[in-house]
Design brief:
The chain has about 120 residues and is an alpha+beta fold. It has a single domain, classed as Roll (2,3-Dihydroxybiphenyl 1,2-Dioxygenase, domain 1), CATH 3.10.180. It has two helices and nine strands. The strands form two sheets. Strands 5, 6, 7, 8 and 9 form a five-stranded mixed β-sheet that branches. A four-stranded mixed β-sheet has the order 1-4-3-2, covered by helices on one side. The longest helix has 13 residues. The chain is globular, with a radius of gyration of 14 Å. The two termini are about 25 Å apart. It comes from Zooshikella ganghwensis. InterPro entries: Glyas_Bleomycin-R_OHBP_Dase, VOC_core. This is VOC family protein.
């Protein structure tokens, strides 16, 4: 199990504002800050960080949602916060019950919220 991860960002202030807003539907709150690094707590621990870097190479990062409504709220909140659409909420063909939404943040990171609908698994 991963204890925490850090995402590099090119504009710390704008990215901090974006993630503070976009992750709210998933229960995250910005609870730590050290210079140009911010930590976000999901209610258990501070497992997601952003940090300013001169060079950013976009990656894919998925956050687990508790239900379908959280996925949808993440998607709409992230778009309102400045993200670009990369896949509206819906079931995916990855495997039965995979319900997700995807957005690109300002650095091109592919950010996903996913809920595993075990009621759809055979």
């Amino acid at each position: 199990m991963i204890a925490h991860t850090t995402l590099p960002v090119s504009d710390y202030k704008k990215s901090k504002a974006f993630y503070t807003q976009a992750l709210t539907p998933l229960g995250y709150k910005n609870n730590m800050e050290f210079g140009e690094a911010a930590g976000f707590n999901d209610g258990k621990n501070t497992d997601f960080w952003i940090v300013y870097m001169n060079t950013v190479i976009p990656i894919h990062l998925a956050f687990e949602a508790s239900n379908q409504k959280e996925v949808e709220a993440f998607y709409h909140t992230a778009l309102a916060a400045g993200a670009t659409d990369n896949g509206s909420p819906g079931y995916r063909d990855y495997w039965p019950g995979y319900y997700a939404a995807f957005v690109y943040d300002r650095d091109g990171h592919n950010i996903e919220a996913v809920w595993y609908d075990y009621g759809k698994v055979n």
